[in-house]
Write a structure and sequence with these properties.
The protein is α/β, with parallel strands linked by helices. It has two domains: 7-208, Spore Coat Polysaccharide Biosynthesis Protein SpsA, Chain A (Alpha-Beta Complex); 216-268, no CATH class. The protein is built from ten helices and nine strands. Strands 1, 2, 3, 4, 5, 6, 7, 8 and 9 form a nine-stranded mixed beta sheet that branches.
Amino acid sequence: MPAAPLVSVILPTWNRRSFLEKAVESVRLQTFPHWELWVIDDGSTDGTGGLFPAADPRIQYVYQANAGVAAARNAGIRRARGEWIAFLDSDDRWLPGKLERQMKFHENHPHRISQTDEIWIRNGKRVNAMKKHEKKGGPIFESCLKLCLISPSCALLSKKLIDETGLFDESFEVCEDYEYWLRVTARHPVGLVDEKLVVKHGGHADQLSRRHWGMDRFRIRALRKIIDSGALTPAQKEAASNELEVKCRIYARGCLKRDRPGEAREYAIFPA
């Protein structure tokens, strides 16, 4: 294995062979050369492992029993040797200057996390992101309460920040990134490289968001967790509590529409 790189790229995958080759190639084409790539195969059955002959020492392939995307990212983080950690989802890809632009940003700014903007592709066609999804920089905790404003594929974090914040919560089947970015942004401002340097694909049938009804129940869990953590300032706690109430009411209405009155009652009553 070559000397430790500056950036460790963590790429979790599960039965995404058709996307994965392009994702990996987008890492190889980076103009910033000091990286290693950890492909964490979370129990694929589509022959994913056959894509990785031991030809490029910068690329390490690890197979594990299926445990979810949070566990796969954590497996990569534990193996990472770089001072910086970048994530890349297996159905996304980077433009060639992505890592170089972010590393230059961190050379000139004290931020311990940054994100880039992204291009959205839905069902093979480019679409414009809605205003509410606009990438932001600075102290964005309160903005992140409503929805996940950091795409993993856009993020670059210092390893020390991850050591302090902790790993992804593996009990979250989905919205694990929402929960994680709440923990990060509660303490750290986010640097913004305001360039579209990530191509984000969506609309395909195997997306986690399509396999789980009621995504807000996972966000509600995340909000309760951060509120109970003791890590928030009074203003942050008030904002998180207000958003928790909003999400509980929305989810309760959804339960009623799906003839789940017991669950609706549970969420309609905002916990004191």
